[in-house]
């Protein structure tokens, strides 16, 4: 059974999560709570009109920057600089697009308005990051996530132009690798991220890595 959070900023032990990864319900999206959550391998994910749900699945889907796979077709796009790449140039715009752009097989969005407010605050304090791909001066795709120490926690991505989000993701992983980031948390499995080199690791191994590298 999931734990119910109070105003006190604490989380139960990660190994007490439900089989599907649900760990706790309630609380808020205050910066202090979000930072503790991510340092602990926990993230919020919930639907509109539901209470905040906190998750810590086992195993965890992650990507080591050195394991990034770039297909020949994407390499051609990178070689010819098909998109202009930036970071933190349009954080709110990226989040809004992640919220509104429809995806195959997904009827709604888990990115609530209060999440945009909370993560924009994280971004203003240097704990959240967006990556953008631009085409002819217009935002074509991108992603955002949380950045703590040497760990990047990917949250969501979107594309308005084919391959734009994948382009932004690859460029960001390459940049983060240059900056010494050692682990990228992808949270849940997708075939898209698996094609880019992401793989499952045990939750215990993931948490141990966070204790070493996700330091504020």
Description:
It contains seven helices and eleven strands. With 216 residues, it is α+β, with helices and mostly antiparallel strands. It has a seven-stranded mixed beta sheet with strand order 6-7-8-9-10-5-11, sandwiched between helices. The chain has a four-stranded mixed beta sheet with strand order 1-2-4-3, covered by helices on one side. The radius of gyration is 17 Å and the shape is globular. The model has no long low-confidence stretch (mean pLDDT 95).
Topology:
Elements: E1 3-5, E2 22-26, H1 31-39, E3 43-44, E4 53-55, E5 60-63, H2 72-79, E6 84-87, H3 91-100, H4 113-124, E7 128-135, E8 138-148, E9 151-159, H5 164-178, E10 183-187, H6 191-195, E11 199-201, H7 203-213
User: How many DSSP H or I helices?
Assistant: 7
Strand line-up in the sheet with most strands = 6-7-8-9-10-5-11
Q: What is the beta-strand fraction? A: 25-35%
Coarse morphology: globular
- Summing up helix and strand content along with how strands pair, one would put the structural category as alpha+beta
The tally of beta strands, per DSSP, is: 11
Return the average pLDDT rounded to an integer. 95
Q: How large is the radius of gyration? A: 17 Å
Q: Can you give the helix content as a percent range? A: 25-40%
Q: Report the span from N to C terminus.
A: 31 Å
Order of helices and strands: EEHEEEHEHHEEEHEHEH
Biggest β-sheet strands, sense, barrel = 7 strands, mixed
Q: Give the quaternary arrangement of the chains.
A: single chain
**Unreliable runs:** none
């Amino acid at each position: 059974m999931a734990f119910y959070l109070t105003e006190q900023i604490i989380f139960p032990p990660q190994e007490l999560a439900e089989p599907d990864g649900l760990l706790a319900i309630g609380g808020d999206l205050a910066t202090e709570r979000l930072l503790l959550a991510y340092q602990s391998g926990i993230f919020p994910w919930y639907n509109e009109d539901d209470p905040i749900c906190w998750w810590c699945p086992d195993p965890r889907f992650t990507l080591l920057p050195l394991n990034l796979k770039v297909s020949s077709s994407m390499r051609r796009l990178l070689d010819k600089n098909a998109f202009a790449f930036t970071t933190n140039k349009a954080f709110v715009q990226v989040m809004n697009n992640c919220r509104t752009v429809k995806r195959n097989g997904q009827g709604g969005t888990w990115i609530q308005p209060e999440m945009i407010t909370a993560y924009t605050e994280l971004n203003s304090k240097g704990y959240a990051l967006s990556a953008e791909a631009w085409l002819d001066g217009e935002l074509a795709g991108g992603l955002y996530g949380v950045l703590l120490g040497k760990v990047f926690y990917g949250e969501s991505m979107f594309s308005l132009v084919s391959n734009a989000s994948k382009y932004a993701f690859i460029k960001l992983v390459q940049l983060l690798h240059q900056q010494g980031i050692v682990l990228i948390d992808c949270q849940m499995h997708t075939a898209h991220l698996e094609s880019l080199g992401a793989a499952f690791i045990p939750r215990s191994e993931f948490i141990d890595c966070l204790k070493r590298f996700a330091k504020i």
